[in-house]
Amino acid sequence: MPEALAGPPALEETLHRAGHAAARSRGLVPALLLLHTGLGEGIAVRGARGWVVAPTRVTRRLWSGEGYVGLPAQDAVEATPAVLDGLGLTVLHCRRPGPAAAGPAYGAWLAALAWTRLGHSRHLLDLAVAHLGRRTFDGAPLLHRQLVQGTLADAVVAHLEAESALDGAASHRAALAEAHTRITAVDRELVRLFGAAGFTADGPGRSAHASELLADVYAGGTPCTRTTSA
Q: How many Cα atoms are found within 13 Å in the side-chain-facing hemisphere of 177?
């Protein structure tokens, strides 16, 4: 049986923008499902240290009853944090050595993820604007306060900078890592605009955490062929 928890086949570049559009209009998990459709049936990508973050619909198709496709149960264990419960994502840790998280195909995966995370970040911005438009302080919408407007303007600029960095960056690992870092930083600022609502069980902070986890798993480590224990 072929290895399914592996390095990715090359994604079509058209899926990068498609992932961005899907994440902005429909959210993070639907966009990730779109990317996995581009990878092919029964494939989930393993990061540099053996971690996998994938839609639960994908990981369910990899489960054989005795383990994941190509990996016995003792070699790939579920480690989904409680904060992601109900979001539709599964986190796996693969203890068996896997293929190196490097090369053009992995770069294409990082680029697709960055575009998707950028679309999701813009989705957070849209939600924040709608939320602040409904909230008032001293009878005036919070959206009209100078500090809030400054934070929103900074987010728009950061999104444009990330988009500029991503254009043609699929083969440049450092540029992709920088784009992921920018997106994580702006997401954290956007979540704060929701106040306490941003950190509730069904608040936007949960999907922002999932987006940041994707960056940590796939863009945050030195490429290697052997996993390390958590």
A: 12
Whole-angstrom Cα distance, residue 155 to residue 120? 13
Contacts of 45 (CB under 8 A, 6+ apart): 5, 6, 7, 8, 39, 52, 54, 109, 218
Beta partners for 94? 76
Assess contact for 179 and 219: CB atoms under 8 A: no
User: Does residue 38 have a pLDDT over 90?
Assistant: no
Candidate ranges 15-29, 96-110, 211-225; pick with highest mean pLDDT: 15-29
Q: Which residues contact 2 (CB under 8 A, 6 or more apart)?
A: 69, 70
In 3D space, the residue among 132, 121, 176, 130 whose CA is nearest the CA of residue 154 turns out to be 121
* Residue with tokens 């950190």, as numbered in its chain: 199
